[in-house]
Design goal:
The longest helix has about 40 residues. Helix 10 packs antiparallel against helix 11. The protein is about 65% helix and about 10% strand. The protein has about 625 residues and is α+β, with helices and mostly antiparallel strands.
């Protein structure tokens, strides 16, 4: 048997240990390859070049993260195999040969993970392209093509990554004495000790970070983001390395708890495992927090802007004609012709722009004046009957344009205005989105409106369509026919907008960002779960020996299952719960920044991750307990 065959056989003898590492590496390669397929797709580049740029950026993030993830994972594996390495050295293997063997094993696993990832990507490429068409709302199909550029980039990038990682992992073995290798993980461990000062500091840092994050508002959130993130990261590190051990040791000192049934065994072992895995749990908590926050933010932003878009615009089509617009009649006929086969309702309102004198403050203010009857017809057409008003001859209602993402302004409800030498009394204020020229208006009685002189006019037309999402193509055709800028719909004398077209355009733009973000978040989340798996199975042989010895003292199968379930649940969910709390605080701060309720999206994202994690835990628990019991 050659040395290369020996390294090859070593990998397959330890396939259980390497399985999660191989599959996680394969997943990272697969996601990188999927992004490369899209970023090099000729049709996608034609449709939206910014998406391709975003995908290349995502590839860079995944590549950097994959490097860190693989390096940390391999370090854990090498630590669990120290005894095996010690036996090889005793049997005559030199340090050079040992490092060469580890190098070959790493490269071998990396090669197969890379080839398998590319192969699976090619098999499911068409399905992935079809899914992307739906997520990105692309009008044109993305045909299948052979992505040789993507395959070449992925293969070369990850082959380099695994070779570099192999050099790093080989350096870890340097300086280890034979006695340390032979003892491996069975060397006696020191009793876990905690620092009371650092434990208190952990609680203070996390509390301070949470309080600041939850108390800041609007632009202050951006200012506080970096210092709060640093505070919470440091606090999380001390939470796992110090505060967790402190709390377990305090529970051990409570005799009524510590000596109850199997708690003695559970708590004694838990303190050691929390201390040993503190850095791994810190890594998992931070990575999971990044995944929660990134995906939650992307989903939240999309929900926020789509909701504000629909709440702000009650009409499917809007047309604003300024004074002197010679094409007004022609354009309105054009819109009505396009909507001829669609059930719609329209209304118009003529706005008289005048300069009024504020009787209370004696300053001149420019206002748009609208009549009560036209405004009520517009409200009826928009299905907003609650916005209709009833005024006397000398009364007025102030309408202010309200953006759903902004707080309600502090406006004086009652005041007097001088219009054309006549005094009119404002009796109230009303937020509205019916006349979308982003100005404030006064609604007055028809009699008062007809008597106004010295004014300029502007006409607003609103077209209500119940199924407005189906009108995107009509809106695009009208924008082209009117020869106005698609992104704004503005011209010198008129403005036209289509809710369906703007909705479709926004979904295409945000869909690209969401597509990129979801996959990056998925990579982070899978890596976090896999790392927990690595840590559990790295200690599996020690756990088998320990519980085999304890079972001889009378530990029943039911008690063993209970101890392992509680222990696994604590080790598995403590970092995830910490990440969930961090993510909830981060998304709440985002909500405060935009003054928009993101509870539903936050609950959806965090709830989905929690359900996935529970399923993952049940799968791991079943296999872990089965392996422990099989050794007894």
């Amino acid at each position: 048997m050659t040395f290369r065959q020996f390294a090859f056989n070593n990998v397959f003898r330890n396939k259980r240990t390497y399985a999660a590492y191989f599959l996680s590496s394969l997943f990272a390669v697969l996601v990188f390859f999927v992004y490369a397929i899209f970023s090099f797709h000729p049709e996608l580049i034609k449709v939206n070049s910014s998406v391709a740029i975003g995908l290349h950026f995502a590839e860079g993030i995944i590549y950097v993260f994959s490097f860190i993830f693989v390096l940390v994972s391999m370090s854990a594996f090498l630590h669990s195999r120290k005894k095996e390495f010690g036996l090889m050295v005793m049997l005559g293997m030199t340090n050079h040969q040992l490092r060469r063997m580890v190098f070959l094993e790493n490269v071998l696993i990396g090669f197969f993970a890379t080839v398998s990832g590319i192969g699976i990507g090619l098999v499911f490429a068409k399905l992935i392209l079809m899914a992307a068409e739906r997520i990105l709302n692309l009008k044109e199909a993305l045909p299948f093509y052979f992505p040789w550029q993507a395959a070449l980039l992925t293969f070369s990038a990850f082959l380099i990554l695994f070779v570099v990682i192999s050099f790093f992992t080989v350096s870890i073995l340097k300086g280890n004495k034979l006695i340390d290798l032979i003892k491996g993980s069975s060397a006696p461990k020191k009793e876990p000790k905690e620092s009371i000062v650092l434990s208190i500091l952990a609680a203070l840092l996390l509390t301070t970070g949470y309080v600041i994050a939850l108390s800041v508002r609007e632009i202050q959130v951006v200012t506080a983001m970096i210092p709060v993130t640093i505070i919470v990261i440091i606090g999380t590190y001390f939470l796992f390395t110090q505060l967790s051990v402190f709390m377990i040791n305090r529970m051990k000192k409570r005799k009524n708890l510590f000596w109850k049934k199997t708690n003695l065994l559970l708590l004694s072992d838990l303190a050691y495992r929390m201390k040993d895995n503190a850095r791994a749990f810190f890594f998992v908590a931070i990575v999971s927090t990044v995944a929660f926050s990134a995906i939650g933010s992307l989903v939240g932003f999309r929900y926020m802007f789509t909701t504000s878009l629909t709440e702000e615009r009650p009409f499917a089509f809007e047309y604003v004609s300024d004074q002197g617009n010679q094409q007004e009649k022609k354009h309105i006929q054009l819109i009505e012709k396009e909507l001829d086969s669609t059930k719609y309702e329209n209304a118009s309102i003529t706005i008289k722009h005048v300069t009024t004198e504020n009787s209370d403050e004696e300053d001149s203010v420019g206002w748009g004046i609208v009549s009560q009857s036209e405004y009520n017809r517009l409200a009826k057409a928009a299905r907003q009957l609650d916005k209709q008003v009833s005024l006397k001859n000398n009364e007025a209602m102030m309408l202010y344009f309200h953006n759903p993402l902004q707080e309600m302004p502090d406006i004086q409800k009652r005041k007097s205005h001088r219009i054309g030498g006549h005094t009119i009394q404002q009796i109230g204020i009303q937020p509205m989105n019916l006349i979308r020229t982003h100005e404030d208006y006064l609604v007055v009685s028809d009699e008062f409106y007809n008597n106004i002189k010295d004014f300029s006019t502007q006409v607003y037309y609103g077209f209500y369509v119940k199924d407005w999402k189906d009108t995107a193509k009509i809106g695009e055709n009208l924008l082209k026919t009117m020869d106005v800028e698609h992104t704004s719909g503005f011209d010198d004398n008129f403005r036209f907008s289509s809710l369906g077209y703007d909705w479709d355009s926004f979904n295409q733009a945000s869909g690209a960002t969401l597509f990129v973000g979801l996959f990056i978040g998925a990579v982070f989340f899978v890596a976090a779960g896999s790392f927990l798996y690595f840590r559990l199975y790295a200690d599996l042989e020690d756990e088998k020996r320990k519980f085999s010895a304890i079972s001889k003292l009378g530990l029943t199968s039911k008690e063993l299952s209970k101890i392992l379930t509680i222990q696994l649940a604590l080790l598995f969910f403590v970092p995830i719960v910490v990440a969930l709390v961090h993510g909830a605080v981060a998304l709440t701060a985002l909500q405060h920044m935009f003054n928009f309720n993101l509870f539903k999206t936050t609950a959806l994202v965090l709830g989905s991750f929690t359900v996935i994690q529970i399923v993952y835990f049940l799968f791991i628990r079943f296999n872990y307990i089965r392996k422990i019991k099989s050794s007894i």
